[in-house]
Amino acid sequence: MTPRSILIVEDDKDLRESLLDLLVIEGFSVVAAGNGEEALQVLRKGGSFGLVLLDIMMPVMDGVAFMHAFENEFPHLIGTTPIVVLSVLAGQVHLPDWVTDAVAKPTSLDKLVELCERCFYTLH
């Protein structure tokens, strides 16, 4: 795993690129995927991340389907790789117990950076 590495899974291109730019400026190593299937492909190719920021509503493969596939394909990462749901549906969708946090969009960029920092400080 690359220190302070984040996988962003977000279908909104503008938001995805803004998050990527912000987190890189804050010193994180970031890879972005446009949907759950793209994120799984990154992980299958050996991508290793200290945190996953996950949207729920996405085309091709939504966040709920991604979480099921993640749990089935990468059970060794459950509990060691924080998953933070970042979605307008945060609090409205049943999430697995192993999801670290759920944050409603929109959220302030400062709050998001603080959450990322906390995930790395607490779990790594």
Automatic annotation (TrEMBL):
The modification 4-aspartylphosphate is found at D55. The keyword Phosphoprotein applies. It holds the Pfam family Response_reg. InterPro entries: Bact_response_regulator, CheY-like_superfamily, Sig_transdc_resp-reg_receiver. Residues 5-120 form the Response regulatory domain. Keywords: Phosphoprotein. The keyword Phosphoprotein applies. GO terms for biological process: phosphorelay signal transduction system. PANTHER family: RESPONSE REGULATORY DOMAIN-CONTAINING PROTEIN, STRESS RESPONSE REGULATOR PROTEIN 1. This is Response regulator.
